[in-house]
Backbone:
């Protein structure tokens, strides 16, 4: 049997200094080593996957390190860290166990972002201290049986009945659903606030009368994380539970989703890092044709591509996280490419492990199962490509590889005129090209920051790979 | 002033996209808050309008439309130009 206990060959740790906002680097660097140790010593990802839950002592350990308050304000017991630092910590955990990273990341991102950004002083005083300590967990409920990417199709309704608010409907695929005590819930709220088709966010407590938490879903991956349905059977809510402006929940959602999907994208870099480390290790000990695999040119090429892709997505997620004013569109490329490319990295890892990748023992199969959902949740990748395409029409991408995208936009505008706005196939393609331009910008910025020959070589390799993706999209003009 | 028949055709497009009955759509309605259209379907709306009336709309102009009144003004302007 292959010796899988051998220490993994070193894979360059993401250079935290690259694109770090002032003041956050020191905090994250101080956390990384103890957290890494904690993850190795206390988290057993395959055991968690088998038992379909995270042991209480693991969650307690993360609480003791203060991680449940990372992104929450210091005024309420949190660490007050920004998106860059929060995501970087989520990535460290994801290297060990994506289910644990998802549980924490959801709490720090989608689960609490609405409260941090739009919560009233009373709401923040009531919930944030307990959320920051990890005493209670947060979840975010927006997907419904008939409303996935199409959030305009929400059926869960907030209505006013005899002067009181009532919530009725159903949410599905709620990450942390079975663990959380506080849910941020998106609703349609016809008539409220003078808006006929407005949407409103509300805070719902698990103990509210009429809230029913469903059974845990049996999933392909992220099996140790909690995913449930939520039923709201005429839940009576006071006006103090409304989060943000009445009727304008859709606008609030844009920010919350952009923030949450960026935290999730950081997690993808952790998964990719784990896959590459395991594969380098395997290829350094597995002998075929009289040589270790990493001495075979074809294998070396694939390892180099994996490393270049990892370099690119690490750069991209940090680039997205450093400027909140551009987060709504930068997060699109970060989420889509981090999930797509980490999926490719994991798939190559499985291939290079041969039969060993197909059995659970090496942990690659678990990485593959865990990675698959990331292209679907927090905004399906195809939908986000269309969104990026629309953004690109009015904010043409900039940077070294943007000319290809700008040419494609010009050609599409000339060919379709205004019809381009409704041509989702073309917008999808333009969005894909714009995302590649975003990734090129981020990779080159990272290479400049790091200033090493290795970083420049990885950026150059990514640009070559990026060219081949663009050619597949017909963006060679 | 936009012709009543043209206005009715625009309301029909709005109704098809938003599933709000045509008779309930008013000039003062906001595309997102009253008709439930998100950014993608708002752009689709402008695209459908351009096809229906064979007019061309600048993309920068299209993204600035947030309500039915703005849409009618745009149509009136462009159909007049056409």
Residues:
């Amino acid at each position: 049997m292959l010796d899988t206990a051998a220490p993994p060959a070193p894979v360059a740790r993401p250079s935290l200094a690259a694109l770090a906002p002032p003041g956050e680097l020191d905090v994250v660097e101080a956390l990384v080593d103890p957290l890494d140790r904690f993850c190795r010593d206390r988290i057993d990802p395959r055991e968690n996957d088998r038992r379909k839950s995270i042991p209480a002592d693991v969650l307690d350990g993360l609480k003791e390190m203060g991680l449940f308050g990372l992104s929450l304000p210091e005024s309420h017991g949190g660490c007050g860290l920004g998106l860059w630092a929060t995501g970087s910590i989520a990535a460290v955990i994801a290297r060990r166990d994506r289910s644990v990273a998802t549980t924490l990341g959801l709490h720090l991102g989608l689960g609490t972002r609405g409260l941090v950004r739009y919560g009233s002083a009373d709401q923040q005083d009531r919930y944030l201290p307990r959320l920051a300590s990890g005493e209670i967990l947060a979840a975010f409920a927006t997907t419904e049986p008939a409303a996935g990417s199409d959030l305009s199709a929400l059926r869960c309704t907030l209505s006013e009945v005899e002067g009181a608010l009532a919530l009725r409907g159903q949410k599905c695929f709620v990450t942390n659903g079975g663990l959380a005590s506080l849910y941020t819930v998106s609703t349609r709220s016809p008539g409220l606030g003078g808006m006929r088709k407005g949407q409103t966010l509300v805070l719902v407590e698990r103990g509210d009368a009429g809230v029913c938490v469903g059974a845990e879903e049996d999933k392909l991956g992220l099996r140790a994380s909690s995913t449930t349905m939520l039923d709201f059977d005429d839940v009576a809510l006071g006006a103090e539970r409304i989060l943000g402006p009445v009727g304008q929940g859709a606008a609030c959602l844009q920010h919350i989703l952009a923030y949450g999907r960026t935290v999730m994208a950081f997690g993808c870099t952790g998964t990719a890092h784990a896959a590459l480390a395991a594969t380098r290790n395997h290829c350094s000990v597995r002998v075929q044709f009289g040589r270790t695999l990493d001495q075979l040119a074809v294998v070396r090429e694939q390892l180099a591509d994996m490393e270049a892709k990892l370099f690119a997505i690490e750069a991209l997620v940090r680039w997205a996280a450093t400027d909140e004013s551009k987060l709504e569109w930068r997060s699109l490329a970060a989420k889509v490419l981090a999930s797509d490319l980490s999926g490719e990295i994991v798939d190559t890892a499985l291939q290079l492990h041969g039969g060993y990748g197909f059995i659970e023992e090496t942990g690659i199969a678990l990485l593959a199962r865990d990675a698959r959902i990331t292209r679907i949740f927090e905004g399906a990748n195809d939908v986000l490509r269309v969104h990026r395409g629309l953004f690109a029409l009015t904010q043409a991408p900039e940077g070294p590889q943007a000319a290809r995208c700008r040419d494609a936009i010009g050609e599409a505008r000339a060919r379709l005129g205004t019809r381009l706005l409704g041509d989702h196939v073309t917008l999808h393609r333009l969005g894909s090209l714009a995302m590649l331009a975003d990734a090129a910008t981020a990779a080159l910025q990272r290479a400049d920051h790091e200033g090493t020959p290795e970083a420049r070589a990885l950026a150059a390799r990514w640009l070559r790979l990026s060219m081949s993706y663009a050619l597949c999209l017909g963006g060679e003009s | 002033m936009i012709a009543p028949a043209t206005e009715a055709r625009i309301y029909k497009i709005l109704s098809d996209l938003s599933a709000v009955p045509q008779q309930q759509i008013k000039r003062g309605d906001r595309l997102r808050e009253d008709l439930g259209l998100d950014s993608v379907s708002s752009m689709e709306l402008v695209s459908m309008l351009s096809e229906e009336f064979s007019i061309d709309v600048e993309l920068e102009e299209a993204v600035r439309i947030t309500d039915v009144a703005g849409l009618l003004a745009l149509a009136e302007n462009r159909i007049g130009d056409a």
About this structure: The radius of gyration of chain B is 11 Å. The CA atoms of residues 17 and 44 of chain B lie 9 Å apart.
